[in-house]
Amino acid sequence: MNKAIIFTALTVIGFAVAHERSLATLIGDDVTRVVGIPSGAPPTNDGYAYSQLSYNNDFLWIAGQNGYDSCGRLVDLDEGGNIWTRAYIAFLSIKATMECFNMPITQIPSTTVYLSPLPVTNASTTPADINRILLEWRSQVNVIQRLPEFWGNSTLPARAVVGAQWLSRGDAVEIEPKAVPRTNTLRRTCLDTRVSPPSAQILLRWTKQGIKPTTAIPLLRLGDNQC
Ligand SMILES: *[C@@H]1O[C@H](CO)[C@@H](O)[C@H](O)[C@H]1NC(C)=O
Ligand SMILES: *[C@@H]1O[C@H](CO)[C@@H](O)[C@H](O)[C@H]1NC(C)=O
């Protein structure tokens, strides 16, 4: 909420200066908030205490994404306490949202990646252990970003990696794109067309039917057709 207000204010200032647009057209209920991201992408099941995405004509804001399956369940960590699957799902949800706005994921200018070692620590975990775990997880996020379905060989976005003591539902990884300029000209969204984008369909098939989207990394097989 605060973020949306701040960015709305920045948008107002930016356009008043750069484009001489009337302030009156930008003040008011210019930001549209969407509680759930499009069909196939993971729903929240915590009472919809936030919007999964917000947008106006100029920017798209995507909520921090986690490794939830299509039923809204946080998937298990991969064997050895790895985060391949959770990070993959987070990026696929982000990509599905971008596709709704007719933009490739490569148009995201910057992300914040939050990593919390809490799920794999115990009373004898040392700071050196935590450092090792977070470095390993950061490498896993790096590998996922370079998959052809995400950035491939394209220039990567700017990024901050933050070690967090705790993430929602005790998760290990959360990925939040910063404000995304709406560079497409069509400006049609899947919310208008009611057609769920390809990445949302991939996510739905994977998490409901267990069809793994890539063989490049040891992602978990998910899903039993039941929520
Ligand atoms: C405690 O956590 C460390 C890593 O943080 C791990 O190496 C060790 O096996 C764990 N010990 C137990 C008893 O689970
Ligand atoms: C990235 O570049 C390498 C070598 O330049 C090439 O072999 C590889 O296929 C490229 N990958 C993608 C996803 O474009």
From TrEMBL:
Record-annotated membrane-spanning stretches: none
Protein keywords: Signal
Recorded superkingdom: Eukaryota
InterPro entries given in the database record: RutC-like_sf
Keyword Signal: yes
Position of the signal peptide: 1-18
Designated name of the protein: 2-iminobutanoate/2-iminopropanoate deaminase
